[in-house]
Fold this protein.
Amino acid sequence: MLWTLDKVVRVMFWGGVSALLATLLSALGVVSCLLAFITLWLLTAASYLYKADMKVSVSGKSVVVTGCDTGFGNTLALHLDKLGFRVFAGCLHAGGEGANHLRREGSSRLHVLQMDVTNQEQLDKAAQEVKHLLPEGEGLWGLVNNAGICTLGPIEWVSMKDFRRDPEVNVFGLIATTKTFLPLIRQGKGRVVSVASVAGRLSCAVMAPYCASKYAVEGFNDALRQEMRQFGVAVCLIEPGNFGAGTLLFTTNDAGDRRVLEGVSEDLKRDYGDAYFKRVEKFLKFFRMSGAKDISPVINAFTEALTQTHPQDRYNPMTLWSYFLMFVNTHLPAAFYDKLTKFYCRVVLVFQRVSEQSLWRMLWTLDKVVRVMFWGGVSALLATLLSALGVVSCLLAFITLWLLTAASYLYTADMKLPVSGKSVVVTGCDTGFGNTLALHLDKLGFRVFACCLHAGGEGANRLRREGSSRLHVLQMDVTNQEQLDKAAQEVKHLLPEGDVVWGLVNNAGLCTLGPVEWMSMESFRKDPEVNVFGLIATTKTFLPLIRQAKGRVVNVASVAGRMSAGFMGPYCVSKYAVEGFSDALRQEMRPFGVDVCILEPGNFANGTFLFATDEMVEREVEGVWSSLSEQVKIDYGQRYCKKVEGFKKNFRRKGAKDITPVINAITEALTQTHPQDRYLPMDLLMYFVAFVSTHLPAWIYDALVRLLAILLLKKDEV
């Protein structure tokens, strides 16, 4: 499950409801307050989370996305394409750089359309193209109204022409696009997902033109949701916080700011005063350049709105502070909200200049949620003890202790180091995790040495094409010591004076699957040669530079390094070895101030090229089967061969396509002031199975794996 602030808030809401009910039951003498609270919260939260994690299949589904030239739209179009949707990316400039980027990076399922949402003729033409490209009888599953602009300035300073600009695109363009594609959406009983903003729920000074348009989007969306319910169409609203640094919506409107500021008459300047004029000028510049750089929370919200079986009416990818402000604005008297925004402008903006990454902008992960729940368990035990001693009320003690311990952990977990002057070496950058990570770290400001098995291949060329001047592609086969030594020399040569090699990410790896008795010794040696000995050789080569910087070593293991399963022997052997090596290295490096972190991803086979296609699986299994002795074939039988083939196919098919959790985990391992020893980017079910494997008797784990095989795999493949 993807953990978001939305989900955490809803789980906490059910905690509040459970606390009230538990207090009532305790007062009636029905049951212990703490027992009732924990039971009710577990039941209500589990029910909500189970429902929230139900997904629809993307097969045969098409989505229209507007505003795909840059920002959210451009990133979302490629993301949905990778997930398997047919994507119609509407661009204001179909011949521009953004559109060409989509054509270059997208698959054959991604179609770029010329679409100015304020031009009905272009909308009608785009709708005809969509109908023509849709398979016969297939409706349109999703419409994402993303196109938008932003005008800022004090009300008295902004001209009526500028006041009309935002609604023309953000409101009337959105309405026109919705009306144009709504018949196709109704036919497909699909989704309409519109981008509003936190500025559509709370307004503030100097943002009136933008806020007016986004408040209007809220009103239109609520009406549309009620009208479309009878047709089985879900209407969702995305309310992002400030992602100005991660999009071009704000940063490219300097001309608009100048137009507003230069249009102020001398009389107005005199009335408002020079100090106010300079303050507004400073605010406009800061607002457009501040905000989160990482837009993945918004992309994830779009994705959930399109794929959840039971989508939310509203998604709020924003900081905790914005969430709090929104709550105050919608639930308390206006005087409270006005005082808070005044405080925000005077104090919080100053704080954000000092610390871009704050507690309320924390990346919520399953790791953090599990640790917060762990402190909840510890707090429950201590509260029970204090209550038994008659010191304090059990519920009061529990809530107080949990808030203190959880807040302390979260504050520590969110402390970040600056990336300036830091370099990172990443192995296995041809495809998958490594390729995406190298570009991500480059965007964050790291100097990245991306090591590729084929430095002249497509993956390496993509890095050169899309990376900045800080990203260097190196030829490196981790099993070749000569290439490792040469790469280390290149790193030293390219490292600017004063910079350090802060991190080494051992990502290169491969995966061999199959029954133990079927696999040759050569096959068993294949995975460890890269996953273990290649990792060790790379670590030993770069460790002197890492020690010098007191940096980080991040080793990519796997959940298969914590739990093993049938048909995964060769791969598990190598990943268990990585775990053992990493634990030893962590203890040895601690005196040198070097942190060693282990990454244990779940199954992300659909998001990487680590595993073969179905056709390759069939050929591979057939090749192994034909190499077996006749006696082994008789002992296992042809049905078992089909079972192995089915397992390998399903292993790839059922893997997650979105590798963002893995990228985020590696990023945290490199940037947290106090990194974790292990990061576990995986779904909740995998987390539970790993827990059973490491904490309960083997027979329980084996029974659970067998049960899951029956439930999750096709009958003829069990």
Notes: The chain has 26 helices and 14 strands. The mean pLDDT is 84.
